[in-house]
Amino acid sequence: MSNLELVAENNDYIVVNKTSGLITEKSPYERNTVETQVFQHILKKKPKPYVGVIHRLDRVTSGVLIFAKKKSVLVSFNALFSTRKVQKTYLAIVKNKPPKTKGQLVNFLVKNNLEKRADIVESKSKNTLDCRLSYTVIDQNDFGYLLEVKPKTGRFHQIRAQLSHIGLPIIGDDKYGSDQKYIPQSVCLHAWKLTYEDSETKTSTTFEAPLPKNKFWSFKSV
Predict the structure, then answer these.
(1) What is the CA radius of gyration of the chain?
(2) What is the largest CA-CA distance in the chain?
(3) d(Cα 21, Cα 214) in Å, to the nearest integer?
(4) In whole angstroms, what is the distance from residue 32 CA to residue 173 CA?
(5) Could you tell me which of 40, 48, 65, 218 has the fewest CB atoms within 10 Å of its CB?
């Protein structure tokens, strides 16, 4: 089993840096998942751990994930996510040069269940979902351009699909048009930061997940 990389932990929740290649939730088909790792970690100190899955990351994506240690904490975080009091910040590496150093992308997305992907379409219909994000080019290296991406909606594969739609497939993401090889079952997309606002105190808390340790992620700015 892969080692669990802790970002923060207290009596209410545990924050980890997810390794790409793993799925978030436990599954009867896979022995090693992030939820399983968290359960085993808490089991060392508590005989009957509670692990609440607050949010998820795609298998191919690395980065910050929060799990609740109490049902009440899960309910509280679910409320924060549903009222959009949580901001996720991702880092993505793309081979092609972006047309602008900053941009706002607004699209219509359709979930393609047959191919397990998201498709961007030109017009709105009963099957489409609005998806919005902003991106900023913050660095580059020999492999490509580093984008800071802030999704404004939480749609299935939206970052991967929206960037690909403007000619910027994420490195390693052959599902969305990348021709650049990367680590198997992984793409150059990292959930870098997660910030939430406490409903009662109105204070903000930010968790940051260290970048993957490979040559693609060698940048001076982060």
Answers:
(1) 18
(2) 54
(3) 15
(4) 23
(5) 48
Cβ neighbours around 111 below 10 Å, total: 17
> What's the Cα-to-Cα distance from 124 to each of 105, 108, 156, rounded to whole Å?
15, 6, 17
Q: Are 171 and 180 a contacting pair, CB within 8 Å?
A: yes
- 58 labelled catalytic: yes
Distance CA 168, CA 147 (A): 10
Cβ neighbors of 72 (< 8 A, separation 6 or more) are none
Residue from 176, 143, 172 nearest 159 by CA: 176
Q: Which of 58, 142, 174, 179 is catalytic?
A: 58
Q: What is the pLDDT along the chain (222 residues), one digit of tens a residue?
A: 458 999 999 999 999 999 999 999 999 999 999 999 999 999 999 999 999 999 999 999 999 999 999 999 999 999 999 888 899 999 999 999 999 999 999 999 999 999 999 999 998 989 999 999 999 999 999 999 999 999 999 999 999 999 999 999 999 999 999 999 999 999 999 999 999 987 777 889 999 999 999 999 999 988
HEC secondary structure over 23-88: CCCCECCECCCHHHHHHHHHHCCCCCCCCEECCCCCCCCEEEEEEECCHHHHHHHHHHHHCCCEEE
Expressed in angstroms, the distance from the first to the final Cα of the chain is 29
CA–CA distance, 221 with 152 (Å, rounded to integer): 24
